[in-house]
Amino acid sequence: MGRRPNSADPAISPPPSPQREIRRARAELSFDDQSLLVPLFGQFDANLVQVENRLGVFISARGDKVLIEGPEDSVARARDVLQAMYGRLARGEELDSGAIESLIAMSNEPTLEGIISGESDGPPVMIRTRRKTIVPRSAGQIPYMRQLARDELIFALGPAGTGKTYLAVAQAVSQLITGSVQRLILSRPAVEAGEKIGFLPGDMKEKVDPYLRPLYDALYDCMPPEQVERHLISGVIEVAPIAFMRGRTLADAFVILDEAQNTTREQMKMFLTRFGQNSRMVVCGDPKQVDIPGGDTMSGLADAVGRLEGLEGIAVSRFTSADVVRHPIVGRIVEAYEGKPE
């Protein structure tokens, strides 16, 4: 006589649990301004294809109407992204693949378009410069941009490509335009990550300028080139290594320190104590990319954040690979490096 099956018998597997049913949905959108449909859809509908591929939905366009089909959650996100894309165009802002990718990444935020347009609590989250109006392109940039407009000293920590330095320069340019500061001071430590600047031709400025290129690039993106050149000559904008800050008091200025993870504790203390009346400082860096020679010296950035976080008037923004606003593959590369030991 055979043995009666027992559910506790390890030789007999329990029946598989039923998979959660994926609910499918449809959504239809219409857009009033037909002149914006071509840039909204993109050449050969490339923008719609990008949203389709990233969110796993099907999008068809007929005239001024767009039909979205797919899993319920994905359809809702795609609808929000397309509305946000249209809103950018209606406000005269640029819409490229990077901007679309950022909107897709932010589409799980419940107030995506409200955050950008100012419909949520608080003022609109944007920075206006001579050349463009800048809005958040990742969830992490939203609180950071609010800090830039509010706090006196901000530490921005995270990997490359998250917009730490770019947004700080944009805020500095905006405040220069409005007259709330009289000059911009952009600095970084001249630490050699394996390269020897002593063997490069030219004087000190010519040796250091290549290391400061990201700061120049952000300036030229926010101001007309002739205006940048004029301000550099007059000293309204100063770009210099951190060693040039010693002994100064930086008043009526917006001061940015980039690559701050490569400062020593002594350099960081020297820099922070340059703070003057009516000034603002932003300190940017990636704590995981320290290139201080010797390797035994503690980064001045980590030391300063440990000492100062939580003090009144001091803010800290931490970015992750999810906030990378370059090509999506950059975020995946950052994740791969962060997840594995050196």
TrEMBL record:
Keyword vocabulary terms for this entry: ATP-binding, Cytoplasm, Nucleotide-binding
Location within or outside the cell: Cytoplasm
GO molecular function: ATP binding
PhoH-like protein domain span: 134-338
A GO CC term assigned to this protein in UniProt: cytosol
Recorded superkingdom: Bacteria
SUPFAM superfamilies, sorted: P-loop containing nucleoside triphosphate hydrolases (SSF52540)
Keyword Signal applies: no
Keyword Cell wall biogenesis/degradation attributed: no
PANTHER family named in the record: PHOH-LIKE PROTEIN, PROTEIN PHOH
UniProt record similarity statement: Belongs to the PhoH family.
Name assigned to this protein: PhoH-like protein
